[in-house]
């Protein structure tokens, strides 16, 4: 026989309010004053706007109407959030159209700086670089012409899907975005390398879509390290073979290492870029060609650094699977960008919760718990750490032999 442990750790505030308390209100208000983001709004101020967006994102609402109806259904619980009533759909829509998405961008980076000490507790093993960044982009398709998409024009006068690209650089150690730029999907990826502000002796990893030899030369001068794949049609000259080995069938490892020269143009002059090329075969038999401007780390670490690039793919997948980026709450470019910035804020707050609670649960599990218990009055850290029901086993007592329980 077993008994359920029904003990619950209840507090006086819903989960949603406890998450919002992670945000330093004094720093938030400073940004409101900087952007004058409440200047033209009487009831739907910046804080109410952020609360409304986060409520919709955490509860995975499909539209602004659904968010406002859902908040209206909370009735008396809105007073915990400092709200007298749910915002009207038209008011929230006006806020998405009018309030500059740059304000929410600054809120995100303010939170990132505020929680830097919390998120920097982890460190990837077998990596020589304290500052390790991964850069990539992900396309989000839109069924509208708000932002121009990618791909060929459809046949039979069909409508081409609009789209946007989220260009992102993450800190690989803390798994948090440090640089984000949102653009139309048609813009080429390599144009965004120029916006990255990287410190000397840092390392950045990216895919071959970002091959830009002039930028590589500038980074080399600035002592910024990089690892990426070599383009298939790249033209280069082998200066020296540094290493070669034969591998057995099914064996993975470095096949070849070479010192190569690439030609690039600057101010209409041809210049030479010295790089290191490493050929690596994985356990599936696929061969990858990596290039780097670092000649000091081991060739195995070059391959390992590129393997870490998969972490940003997982982050994009995490954002798309756990938050509502299939439906947008506005038909304007400003509103769409605002939703993306608020989604990144939501992801950052859950990452902080995961680190602070020292939970080993998957991010998707924590996101689901928040969605289910968003207005429950459970203590948030207790909920994350003890979400599964526990059972206390009790030993069965033997009945005395003189008690006869059966007739035969």
UniProtKB/TrEMBL annotation:
Biological process according to GO: DNA transposition
Example GO molecular function: DNA binding
Domain DUF4372: from-to ranges: 12-83
UniProt domain Transposase IS4-like: residue ranges: 131-348
Keyword annotations from UniProtKB, A to Z: DNA recombination, DNA-binding, Transposition
Domain of life: Bacteria
PANTHER family registered for this protein in UniProt: TRANSPOSASE INSL FOR INSERTION SEQUENCE ELEMENT IS186A-RELATED
Family per record: Belongs to the transposase 11 family.
UniProt protein name: Transposase DDE domain-containing protein
